[in-house]
Amino acid sequence: ETGVTQTPRHLVMGMTNKKSLKCEQHLGHNAMYWYKQSAKKPLELMFVYSLEERVENNSVPSRFSPECPNSSHLFLHLHTLQPEDSALYLCASSLLQADHGYTFGSGTRLTVV
Amino acid sequence: GDSVTQMEGPVTLSEEAFLTINCTYTATGYPSLFWYVQYPGEGLQLLLKATKADDKGSNKGFEATYRKETTSFHLEKGSVQVSDSAVYFCALRGNTGGGNKLTFGTGTQLKVEL
C-alpha cells in the first residue's frame, strides 16, 4: 500500500462504453497526475492538477476527461475509447516542492475490446 | 527542456553480481534526482533520491550519487538478487519553471537469474 489507491485494478470495456477510473490519496499532497504506460513506450504524462486546478493537458484526446473534485480525489472519465488506448493508467500525487518525488498508485490495467 | 537518458535494457545478471544502471540528465538549475522501481503488474515505487550535488541516496542496498560535474546519477548495487528483477526508472524534478514536473527516463529492465 503506497498511500495512493486506484480503482479498479483491471477494467475491460467496449469501444462504446463509458467508464471512470478513480484515484484517492490521503497523504496531504496538493498535486495529482495521470500517466499512461504502454508496452515498449515511455511513460506518458496525460494530465496535471495543482491545487485542484488543471495545469497541464498534454494533447490528450477528448475521449479522456479528467476531474479533480478535491485535493484527495482524481478521476479519469473514459468514453468511446479505441483499442490502442489499452494500457496501464497510473495515478500519482506529490507536494509541489521540487525535492519531493511522486507517490504512485498500483495502476488500472485497461483493455479496450 | 529537461531530459533523462538511461542505458538501454534489458540487463541480465546472475544472482550476486554487481549492478550498474547508467543515468545522465540535462536540466537547468539544480534539479532533484530520483530512482523509481516498477515490479511486474505494479505502479512505480520511489527507491531513492538525492536533492543536491554530491548527495548519495541509498535504500535496500541500492545507491546513487548526484554528480553535477558529469550530470549523472548512476544506480548501483553490490550483489543483486532474483527479487530485484524489475524495471528501473531514473527521473529528475526541476525547480525552475515547468511546474516542477517529474521527467522520466525510458526505463531499464533488469533480469536476475539464479
Question: If you had to describe this structure to a student in words, what would you say it looks like?
Answer:
The complex is a heterodimer of chains A (113) and B (114). Chain A is mainly beta. Chain A has strands at 4-7, 10-13, 18-25, 31-37, 44-50, 53-57, 64-70, 73-79, 87-94, 103-104, 108-112. Chain A is built from no helices and 11 strands. In chain A, strands 2, 4, 5, 6, 9, 10 and 11 form a 7-stranded mixed sheet that branches. Chain A has a 4-stranded antiparallel sheet with strand order 1-3-8-7, with no helix packed on it. In chain A, a hairpin with a 2-residue loop joins strand 7 and strand 8. By secondary structure, chain B is an all-beta fold. Chain B has no helices and 12 strands. In chain B, the strands form 3 sheets. In chain B, strands 2, 5, 6, 10, 11 and 12 form a 6-stranded mixed sheet that branches. Chain B has a 4-stranded antiparallel sheet with strand order 3-9-8-7, with no helix packed on it. In chain B, a hairpin with a 5-residue loop joins strand 5 (32-38) and strand 6. The model of chain B has no long low-confidence stretch (mean pLDDT 93). The chains are: A mainly beta (113), B mainly beta (114). At the A-B interface, strand 5, strand 9 and strand 10 of A face strand 5, strand 6 and strand 10 of B.
